[in-house]
Every structure is written in C-alpha cells, then in structure tokens.
Amino acid sequence: MPPGQFLTERFPVLHYGTTPHYTNLQGWTLRVFGLVKAERVFHWDELINLGKKTETVDIHCVTRWSKLDTNWTGIPWREFIIHFEILPSATHVMVHCEQGFTTNVALDVLDDDDTMLAYLYDGKPLEPDHGYPMRLLVPKKYFWKSAKWIRGFEFMAGDRPGFWERAGYHMDGDPWQEERFGW
Q: Which domain holds residue 170?
C-alpha cells in the first residue's frame, strides 16, 4: 500500500453536493472536445458497445483509505480513443462531470492498461453514489482522479486545475508520492 494509507474492506462514499440519479439513459451522452480533429458525442448505447474489459485493481483515496482487489468493467481508455483523433498538441484532459465537477489528468497517465471508462463494479452497474452510470478509472492516482458521473473529455495543450485541484488537491495525485494537497 502507498505510504500513509490504511486498509478498508468498505467502499466509502465521499463527494461534494448531491448525487445525480438517472432513471433512463436514452438521453445520456459523453462529449469529446477541445484538441481533437472533430468534436464527438457518444450516446450510451453506442458507448457500451465498444470493447470492454474487466480489471482487478487497488484504489487509494486522498482521505487515506485504500481498498485492494476491486473489480471493474468498462471501456479501456486505449479502445475509447481510437474512435476519434486527438491532435498532437494535446497533453492533458479535463474530465467534465455532472454538477460542474472537473479534474485534470495527463494523457500519458491515461495511456495505461488499467485505465478505463467504468460502468460495472463487482459485475453490477455502479451505484449512484459511486458514479452511475459511468466513471473514469485511473487506479495509479488518488481516487478523485477517477471522476464520477463523467459527461465529457476536453483535450488540452498543457495542464490546468479542475474543481478539486482549485480546492487545494494536488495537480498529479500520485499516492506513492503522497501528492495529496498543494501544488
């Protein structure tokens, strides 16, 4: 486990604001924009029919809990990005989520075997408090980088802070380096 963490069997729920609830995913979309050749909007049915993968990974929260051997299913990041063209000047992504939440992630961090757009946890749809219908999964970073309730990916040249980073969280969030706060 990374330094400063404690092990939990629970799956704590931490977020700011209310939990979005969906009764129908017919109108749900995921937008890709910014430094891409052409903006793209994915509809739910289209997105979940892309390639999928199941991964078992450890997750680490900035509040110091770690949960080992968690099981996720979703669209691998590398599979997702073959469906649009990222411009060479893009280095980072701003992940846009419900209720105006955002977080920044470097493209080289996302380009990993275990990074995905997750929609199942332990073989079941995500619970609303854990990001239903879909969240980003970035296991090598603190869990706020695995943004809940994703709605868009903005490809950017350079980095800029998202909601949590403007609130004092670290720009990179590496649990092995204890990059919790400040930058």
A: 29-177
